[in-house]
Amino acid sequence: MDYLPYSTAQVLRKVARRVALGQFLQIWPPWGAGAFLIAGLVALLCRMFFPNAAHLLPFVWAAPLLSVMVTACLTLNRRYSPLEIAAIADALGGGKGTLLAILETKDGSWNGALAALSRVSLPGLSIRRHVWPVFTAAAFLIIALLLPQRVLTMTDNGVAATEIAADLKATVAKLKEEELVTPAEEKKLDEEIERIRKGALQHLDSSSWEAADALREKAVASAVEKHDALKWAQESLARFTVAAQSGDSNVEAQTQELAESIARLQESGLLADLPMELQKMLGSQYAIAGGKVRLPNDPGALRRLTEMLSAHLAQRERRFRDIAGLRREFGRFDPSDYPEFNYERGPDGDGDPGTGGLNRGRGDAPMTWGKETKRFNGFKAVPLPPGSVRSPDDWAPVATLPGAPKASPQLSVPRESLHYGTAPGQEAWRRTLAPRHQTAVKKYFENR
Amino acid sequence: MSSEATSLLGPDRVAAAQAKVARLTGDLKRVILGKESMIEEVVAALLSRGHVLLEGLPGLGKTELVKALSRLLSLDFRRIQFTPDLLPADITGSYILQERAGEKQFIFHPGPVFTNLLLADEINRASPKTQAALLEAMQERHVTTFGETRELPKPFFVLATQNPIELEGTYPLPEAQLDRFTFKVEITGVDRPVLEEILATRIHGEPPPLEPVLDIAELSELFATVDRIHLPRAVGNYIARLVAGSHPNSEEAPGAVRRFVKYGSSPRGAIAIAAAARGMALMHNKPNVGFDDVRRIAGPALSHRLVLDYTAKLEGWNGRRVVAAMLEAVPDVERGLPKTLDAR
Q: Cβ of A83 and B233 within 8 Å?
């Protein structure tokens, strides 16, 4: 555009910038409003239903920024060509067409005619009626962000049921970690936990915790039973070893006992991780499970077997020590659960349960259950005595006020006891007229 | 095409041409007082070599304008007073049996149409057949009689007048013939100051004496200059959109066109606007046509080309008002300002 005067080129640049700005503001409102609305909607949903996503809410401001970028791209894509800008500038300058002619012919001989164009006023922005949806949507987003975060609260039943189930699952997890529960047992325990949880959700009372305690006791009892089986196996192995080394004639019986104890171990799943070598020494799994363990006759091999079995059982024994905490009596206070308190030197420092000061003694004192409160029956239906209607004759006037209406004996008598004349016609009207009107009717007809 | 021109007319040449036109218009304004706008339109039509239909009440200076124009241009001038009994041959000329050198033969006697400037006074009083005799002359600029075609002198202009009242015994011009006129100029009455000036300067209403300001050679040079006036593409696009918008079925048609126009302008209307706008640009000392020239020209160039519905007459709309509505509705620039910007 060297053939254009500097002032005209400057005007064209200004017009181009202003038109680009206007175009941006024309394209942006629907995108911006949409972005703000979507962001506001997301913020609102997070505020109401997804408290865990609340920390991501500042990122919703990315939506309007994205809309600005999209609009910028669209504006760039739909930008006005230089001739279109020139046509607009020419129209703004009065529509003389000289600028267009010079641009098309690249003839600068008429540049002097463009002087008026340098005084052209740029088109003004009138964005209020276009941008208000964006402001409205932005206000919606701000309001959504300013809303307090709704914390989802479960019902009392829900909280308690979740707590019970979590406690039970922790117990099962501990048992599983120590490989003291078989997959079948674990599945069964899970089903029981779920049943207890659902039951607590529907109806929460003491039976829910009792069921949980019972299940926990059952699981731990199973572990204890396995521990007993392990102890038996260890003891029988020890006896067998002694008998085998001393050449006692009771070896057969000890062998039988050992086989049975090993079968018990197999049954309780404690031999699931039995080393292959040891398993070969004892025979097949069926033999082990059937209590028909085949012990080697070779003393060396027998010694090797007893050593390996003893080591294996000792290893299992350590695992049982790890779950010793689970075996405590349920529902009882265990001071070891609260090491931060020294109950031995508490306010009742004598160590005698139940004889302390105001705190009613140590928590591990045995609880005495007294007479339980009976079920509330305060609203039980009680039949009332039969009622009776009082006769109006029982009522007597206390006083007669002046001006009170006087009773007419004639009108007060019962209707059926009235006696009328028997003349023809009289009976008929007497029947149909009220007694107090009869006099008036009679006078009327007598005057006729 | 003009947009393919490599250079614009030089300022000196435009100024010289504009000075000649200014002399012409200046003298016309001395004759016809208070009608500057009408004079500009007529001169613009002449510069575009178009024909003009002057419509107005009697006594407003229609005939006087044409007569003054003929004197100023030093062109051959004829006047035909159209009457109901006027025949086509009275316009075009006819063969007459004559004796020449002892031999009788038909000799062609050219009619009054063989002139440079033809005043067809009260053209709507002649029969359609006679009016049609002008059709070929106006468009083709030649006359065919008995199978022989004769060229009309150059330049050839028809300036017709018609009276919008006293319609009894008249034959309204058909649309085809109206389309031949570049402009239909409506001559309105004059206001009080102009009347006072007329009374002060004219004793018997006679116009001041006039001297020719342009001969045929200068006029031809002016025509050549007008033809070199540049029409920018954006302005051409505006003319095209304007004419396309005069059709009621067009997407660009404004509401008034959809309601009141039965048939829009022909392409000849667009050509007439472009040509007359060139003349108007020269009158304003410009080397190119601008949007302002088109807006100035659109009314007289399009109003008589629109066939209006009967509802238009019932609601008081005429061609000029519809064109004004079109100018209001159709933006100058096709891709105008974004909606968020307001031109101050």
A: yes
